[in-house]
């Protein structure tokens, strides 16, 4: 039974209800009798009261099973009518379904009038959407690997009797800017430049070059020219040393001095040899070096060639241990290149740090390979610039 079919009992004045009770009560009773025919034993009219009932009356009516509806209270069935409550619940669901269907039909009609196609709306899931993890691109870094340039290997001469091996010097070029590599045209320029500090006391008309000097230069002319050009640009002082006697260290010194002088470089040769095998004697300067007159400075002991920019400092005028770094610095200021013919003297090996480059001369026919493999790492540890190794077969 729905609420619309239920009867209301209002506790109003009987005079005010009299006119309406005649019309409303029969219809209410017919509805209530139809729905509660099994529970109502009599068809008595519904009683109404003009006053408020007392608590004792309410308790009495409750015990008798009389339904009591107060003004404004929801209309329910009897207290013991469980079947009527179930029926009322079913009626309410039926009415709700009818109302829903009516609303749906009305909405369809409105959509058809508007000329739009009704699209059913799917229910939204109550579950929150799962967050989607954004996939970021993996960063990549391109690193350019450094590959050192491949240096061309110097070709060894196939000529019998002489092999030349030389590396590239690692020392920085001097601050003084030098001109480009000298060419043969430079030979027409003045023999040498006069310096204010250099005043050699002795002078020779010419230098007597040994015959083997020209033979060595002819065998590997290109290698010698390249080495001389490298020394002229980046080496101010070069020591030529060997691991034993008779390796041709003096011969190498004379070859370099002749090439450098031919291109206009002023060269100073420091001779450490003694006796007939010394470089001074082999160049024909023994008469000037034999003088016993005392000298005040090393410049006065030098022998200058008149026709070439070459000066020689013999070993007889000074002690090797007295040669200081300051004196070598003065020599490099007054000459373009200083060549130190050290040979196998132990004092020269100890003072290699004073020069800017070292060239090791060895006899390939000798047995100095083991000693050379031991001495080169020691020179590198002392940061001595070894520009190369020259293998000489000539004595």
Automatic annotation (TrEMBL):
SUPFAM superfamilies: P-loop containing nucleoside triphosphate hydrolases (SSF52540). This is CobQ/CobB/MinD/ParA nucleotide binding domain-containing protein. Residues 18-88 are annotated as: Disordered. InterPro entries: Bact_polysacc_biosynth/exp, P-loop_NTPase. It comes from the Bacteria. Residues 18-34 have a biased composition (Polar residues). Residues 35-48 have a biased composition (Low complexity).
């Amino acid at each position: 039974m729905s609420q619309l079919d239920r009867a209301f009992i209002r506790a109003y004045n009987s005079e005010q209800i009299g006119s309406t009770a005649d019309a409303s009560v029969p219809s209410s009773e017919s509805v209530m009798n139809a729905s509660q025919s099994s529970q109502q034993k009599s068809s008595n009219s519904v009683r109404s009261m003009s006053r408020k009932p007392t608590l004792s009356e309410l308790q009495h009516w409750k015990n008798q099973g009389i339904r009591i509806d107060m003004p404004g209270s929801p209309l329910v069935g009897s207290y013991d009518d469980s079947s009527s409550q179930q029926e009322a619940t079913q009626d309410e669901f039926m009415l709700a379904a009818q109302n829903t269907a009516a609303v749906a039909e009305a909405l369809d009609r409105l959509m058809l009038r508007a000329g739009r196609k009704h699209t059913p709306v799917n229910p939204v899931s109550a579950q929150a959407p799962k967050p989607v993890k954004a996939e970021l691109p993996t960063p990549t870094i391109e690193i350019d690997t450094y590959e050192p340039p491949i240096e061309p290997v110097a070709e060894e001469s196939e000529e019998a009797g002489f092999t030349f091996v030389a590396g590239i010097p690692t020392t920085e070029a001097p601050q003084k800017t030098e001109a480009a590599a000298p060419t043969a045209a430079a030979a027409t320029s003045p023999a040498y430049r006069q310096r204010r500090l250099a005043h050699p006391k002795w002078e020779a008309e010419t230098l007597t070059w040994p015959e083997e000097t020209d033979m060595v230069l002819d065998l590997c002319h290109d290698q010698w020219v390249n080495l001389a050009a490298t020394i002229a640009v980046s080496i101010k002082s070069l020591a030529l040393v060997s691991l034993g006697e008779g390796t041709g260290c003096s011969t190498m010194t004379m070859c370099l001095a002749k090439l450098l002088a031919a291109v206009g470089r002023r060269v100073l040769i420091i001779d450490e040899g003694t006796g007939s095998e010394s470089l001074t004697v082999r160049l024909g300067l023994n008469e000037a070096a034999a003088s016993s007159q005392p000298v005040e400075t090393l410049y006065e002991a030098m022998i200058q060639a008149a026709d070439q920019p070459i000066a020689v400092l013999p070993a007889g005028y000074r002690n090797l241990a007295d040669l200081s770094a300051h004196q070598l610095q003065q020599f490099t200021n007054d000459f373009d290149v200083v060549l130190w013919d050290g040979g196998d003297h132990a004092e020269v090996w100890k003072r290699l740090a004073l020069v800017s480059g070292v060239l090791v001369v060895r006899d390939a026919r000798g047995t100095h390979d083991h000693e050379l493999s031991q001495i080169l790492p020691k020179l590198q540890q002392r940061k001595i610039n070894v520009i190369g190794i020259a293998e000489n077969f000539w004595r």
